[in-house]
Amino acid sequence: MVKRLHNKRILITGAAQGIGLAIAKAFVREEASVFLIDRDETLLHSEVTALRREGYVASGQMADIIDAKTIAAALSQAETEIGRINALVNNAGVNVFAEPLETSDEEWNRCFDINLKGAWNCSKAVLPGLIDQGGGVILNIASTHAFTIIPHTFPYPLAKHALLGMTKSLGLEYAARNIRVNALAPGYVATQKVIDYWNSFPDPDAAKAETMKLHPGGRIATPEEIAMAAVFMISDECPFMNATCLTVDGGLSVQQHPA
Questions:
Q1: Which of 15, 58, 170, 232 is least buried, going by the fewest C-beta atoms within 10 A?
Q2: How far apart, in whole angstroms, are the C-alpha atoms of residue 169 and residue 192?
Q3: 0.85 cut: is pTM over it?
Q4: With 90 as the cut, is the pLDDT of residue 193 above it?
Q5: Beta carbons of 10 and 234 less than 8 angstroms apart
């Protein structure tokens, strides 16, 4: 039986851990060929080796999404190793949380460079090839921060709002070229980043409990649950889904007050 991502050749950024790695694993199980990009060369090599050992088509290269030249080089390597890329997942991102008037220029630039400019660098790199092939898919991993605001998280929501704007703009711009550009907005996900966030508090267990209480179901998502939503959005099961955002947050963002 042909799997859901058969003949998909997908570039995934920030793919050596967390949501990105979960997405890569879900994709190869659905017969996609994947090319992983990450700044952590050691971890990247380890995860690519593990995927290959299981018989999947996977490769990868260390690259910094802020540097357009390294992305171009990675794309060239990807096409040599797994074939012409016909889908991209812009997953790489970084949490930058501060009080507005205490946000340094360095923090501001880091937030927008990684969460927005990096996604644009990768999109700009793959778009000519998608156009030439007659279509493809770009999926941006956004956040519920793209349409809701949590105090004391500035400037991260600004960058995610902008990423959602880029999603809509590119989706409309290239719809006639058979290119779908969508976003996926997770809420809290049980990744190392979230664990590190809890550990930044004097009482990590209490911080974790408060996070769980925010959610109608009393828990947060697993990376694998986000990955399965990504499978759907990259697949041919939603051919008329474009320039929009799918929220996967357990109902968090529509709840006015926690119970």
A1: 232
A2: 32
A3: yes
A4: no
A5: yes
Sketch out the chain's domains with CATH numbers: 9-186+224-248 (3.40.50.720), 189-220 (no CATH)
The position carrying tokens 């990504």 is: 230
Residue 70 has pLDDT above 70, yes or no: yes
* Active-site entry in 56, 156, 174, 188: 156
| Residue 257: pLDDT over 90 | no
Dist CA 226 CA 146 (whole Å): 16
DSSP label at residue 5: T
Round to whole Å and give the CA distance between 230 and 189.
14
Residues paired with residue 34 on neighbouring β-strands, in sequence order? 10, 58
Tokens encoding 144 = 């519920």
Backbone phi, then psi, for 224, in 5-degree steps?
Answer: -65, -35
Average pLDDT of the chain is 96
Q: Using alpha carbons, list the distances in angstroms from residue 96 to 17, 129, 208, 253.
A: 19, 33, 19, 20
Q: Determine the residue type at 208.
A: K
